[in-house]
Amino acid sequence: PVDGTLGACGVVTSGTLLQVKGRAYNLSELLGSEVDAARFEGGHYITLYLAPPDYHRIHAPVAGQVRQCMVIPGRLMPVFAEAVAKVDDLFARNERLITYIDTAAAGKMAVVKVGATLVGRITLAYDPTLWTNQPHGTVRRVHYSPPKCLDKGQELGTFELGSSVVLLFEPGQVQPLPPRKPRVRLGEPLARLCTPPPTRLGRAAPKARRGPRRQPRGKSTP
Fold it and tell me: Which of 3, 44, 56, 164 is catalytic?
């Protein structure tokens, strides 16, 4: 979904995920909700860091519908590697803008956009009325009816400089691919689906059936 550097990747366990090896943080604090966090218990997460020289737009990892998003005010501390390794609960303390996407292919997922030092604000392509880094900001949960429809690869939002993105998936939906290199580019696959994608009718494509077994030569069927 971005140009950036692959950070921590793993499974949400007992409500926590890794910020960096040996330093965990609480998912419910990141999302500002124990109910939302419970959906992703046992599911995979992938963290990506966008440096200032990187392309600063975030794109939808999968097609789906946005029914709600959430703005959580917070600090604007640096999120480069040294800070991530030293500051406890960094992502859960910085400002966040969370997009929840309901997908047919991968269940419900969350794209958590984390603010940082020198990030003027985070904006949304699907809702230009909402952005972060506002004076006297308060926690806001916004519902969309009808939902905002997204195609895979469609722009989600923009960091007005660089920061980090945390992708969250429900359990049993995706399997992260082994990283070939720390740098990733927009459009590179980061995970594979654990279930076959639905057909246009909303049902999984049927498995191909084998034809009748051929009889060995010289033998007849009784």
Answer: 3
Q: Establish whether the linkage from the previous residue to 135 is cis, with ω within 30° of 0.
A: no
Cα radius of gyration (the chain): 21
Q: Please say if 163 is a catalytic residue.
A: yes
Spatial contact of 60 and 152, defined as CB atoms under 8 Å apart: yes
pTM surpassing 0.90? Answer: no
145 given a catalytic annotation = no
- Catalytic status, residue 88: no
Tokens standing for residue 40: 């992703």
Structure tokens at 207: 């498995």
Indicate the domain borders of the chain.
4-193
User: Which structure tokens are listed for 164?
Assistant: 């980090």
pLDDT tens digit sequence for 163-189: 999 999 999 999 999 888 899 999 999
